[in-house]
Amino acid sequence: MSSSASDQLFVHKHTRKEFRERMQSGELKACIIPVAATEQHLEHLAMEHDWRSVNHVASLVAEKLSPQVVIAQSMNIGISEHHMRHIGTLSALPGSWLGVLFDTIRSMHHAGFTNILVLNGHGGNIAPCEGNWGQFQQRLEINLQFESYWSFLPDSVAEANLKTKRWPGHAQEFETAFAMAAFPENVRHDAMREQPDQEPMEATAEAGAAMIDAIVEGVAGHVQKMIDGTSVADIPPFHE
Ligand SMILES: [Zn+2]
Predict the structure, then answer these.
(1) 81 and 91 in contact (C-beta within 8 Å)?
(2) How much is the CA Rg of the chain, to the nearest whole Å?
């Protein structure tokens, strides 16, 4: 049996022969590395939310740009010390987390990619990445970029779809709407009604679907620009 179209989206679904042949053919032009977290999302959303949502976006983007893009998964733990009072949260220290992320990037560069987008789904990962990104870029000197998926949501689409007008937030209207649209089994409606924080109650699946469409379009457009060479990372200058 040959592999299915969806198997082609993920590095780990290939055999070494299949992956090698795709790299050699030159059809693979960019790699997405999703990074997220496993952490509490109030009483009503499954703890995989950030991981599941960023992978949902990455998969749709890779599908849209097929066969040019592949996804390398390695990071479903995030930097989440601020959520550790809720057990079940998995948190990595920034040093360890950045080490594994860099090793994943390095592995994909070793495979032949020079366009790599680290697509983020968790707020706690942003500051450590921003603080170290220039050094990652200087080490590899490739088109290596970091973006959070919600930064591709146009303000106009967010404002038209969110009653609270607040995003991304944490387990609030935006994330709850996303889950309702993409993986509704992760939303516990009884717990949502009973918890003190009632903001997630504004969420609808329709709004979630509209926002996901806009995000996927934005990320896909950005990755295509990376492939075309019109979006190139600014590597901080080296000292002469
Ligand atoms: Zn979240």
Answers:
(1) yes
(2) 18
CB contact set of 135 (below 8 Å; sequence gap of 6+): none
Centroid of ligand 1 to alpha carbon of 122 (angstroms): 6
Measured in Å, residue 140 CA sits from the centre of ligand 1 at 30
CA of 161 to the centre of ligand 1 (A): 18
pTM score above 0.85: yes
Q: How many angstroms separate the CA atoms of 43 and 46, rounded? A: 8
Helix axes 173-182, 49-64, angle to 10 degrees: 60
How far is the centre of ligand 1, averaged over its atoms, from the C-alpha of 26 (Å)? 36
Q: How far is ligand 1, taken at its centre, from the CA of residue 216, in Å?
A: 18
CA distance 96 to 117: 20
| Ligand 1 center–CA 49 separation, angstroms | 6
* CA 8 to centroid of ligand 1, rounded, Å: 27
SS3 at position 89:
strand
Phi, psi of 144, rounded to the nearest 5 degrees: -110, 115
Q: How far is CA 104 from the centre of its chain?
A: 14
* 137 Cα: distance to centroid of ligand 1 (angstroms): 27
Domains delineated in the chain: 6-153+217-228 (3.40.50.10310)
Averaged over 61-76, what is the pLDDT?
96
Give the amino acid at 231: S
> pLDDT tens across 37-63, in order?
999 999 999 999 999 999 999 999 999
